[in-house]
Amino acid sequence: MASSFKTLLSSDVAQTRTLLNEAIPITGSIVSGTYSDNNIKTFSHNMFESVYDYPYASSSANHIFDLTLGYCSGSGLSGSSNTDHTKKIQVYNQMAQVLAGFDTDRKVRVFDEDGQLGGGAKLRNCLFINFSRLLVKDEIKKGSFTLQYFASGTFASPSGLTTIQDTNAQNEYRVNSPAGEYGILYNSSTPVGLIYYQAGVVVLSMATSSVSGVSGSTSQIFASGATLDSSGRTPDMIITGSNITAASDAFRHRLYNVSFNNTTELNSTIYFCRANTSDFNYSSNPTYLSGSKIVVKNATTDEPVSYITTVGLYSTDNELLAVAKLSEPIKKTPSTEFTLRVRLDY
């Protein structure tokens, strides 16, 4: 415990914020067949499926993302006779509540392709990709997201490699979401979905689904003639006639590549601990002895000498809160002074 202290002033403390980025590539071979789908975990509730980077029963497997599908009750494709009708509405409503929020009439907002939550064309039939926090960290870096998939052809012979990106999102992202910042996903210049950066969720339009009395229809991610499963179902047929797991499989088997940069926000407090000429020239270490006496100097003409090895940060009531160790002792005399930079990351 220190026996002498020096008060840090506001000018001795600085706050910094650093963003660390990591490239995350997800190859389609992992998602769509490398492990014979042993890395795909399905559930009895049939409301989503989970994708791992290795057979999920292995202790070394890491969760990558979840896939699910849903539509709103106002969708042109919704109907009580649809497979998993109630579940698909529940999935959509859950995602919309979290990501889009509620309007002034306390109704769940419908996803909007231009992000205005108002007059734009609505995303009523959506595929949702929920990325693992292990990959996203604090958020997905804006402007770094790329998704490649086959948009046309048959289930056995998919074709039409297509790229979706959050083009220029670092300059044009939206902030009117309860889940944080989000951007628009484009196929070339056509909006086809949304990406929520802090939530780590991608929303893709599965069908245009015109609705009686409602103007504006969205562009979908698949070609209208594409058959997405072995039964020859088109995108609209998948939404109405397949359960959620089968619909997720239909998309997953067409994935070619997903890549983005994640972001880790590192906040730091930097303390500038200044040892001026008259400070800390005498050791507070009880082992600083010679002949059972504290050694300050051998002759009256000598300068006192101490060696700085540790910096302790204390609260106002002298409780030790943090300790910083120097890589090697620094000799301190009245003829020298130092500024030691201590950084706390959190």
Net shape: elongated
Order of helices and strands: EHEEEHEEEHEEEHEEEHHEEEEEE
Helix content: 10-25%
Chain-averaged pLDDT: 88
What's the Cα radius of gyration?
A: 30 Å
* Count of alpha and pi helical runs: 6
Biggest beta sheet summary: 13 strands, antiparallel
Q: Which residue ranges are poorly predicted, with pLDDT under 50 across at least 5 consecutive positions?
A: none
Structural class: mainly beta
The count of domains is 2
Description:
Strand 15 and strand 16 form a beta hairpin. It is elongated, with a radius of gyration of 30 Å. The two termini are 25 Å apart. The protein is built from six helices and 19 strands. Helix content is 12%, strand content 38%. Strands 1, 2, 3, 4, 7, 8, 9, 10, 11, 12, 13, 14 and 19 form a 13-stranded antiparallel sheet that branches. A two-stranded antiparallel ribbon has the order 5-6. The chain has 346 residues and is mostly beta strands. The mean pLDDT is 88. The longest helix is centred in the first third of the chain and has 15 residues, at 85-99. It folds into two domains: 20-263, no CATH class; 276-345, no CATH class.
The gist of it:
This protein is mainly beta. The protein is built from six helices and 19 strands.
Topology of helices and strands:
Elements: E1 13-27, H1 28-31, E2 40-41, E3 49-52, E4 63-71, H2 85-99, E5 111-112, E6 122-123, E7 125-131, H3 133-136, E8 139-140, E9 146-153, E10 158-165, H4 169-172, E11 182-187, E12 190-196, E13 201-205, H5 235-241, H6 244-252, E14 255-275, E15 289-290, E16 293-294, E17 306-314, E18 320-332, E19 338-345
Antiparallel strand pairs: 1-14, 2-3, 3-4, 4-7, 5-6, 7-13, 8-14, 9-10, 9-14, 10-11, 11-12, 12-13, 14-19, 15-16, 17-18
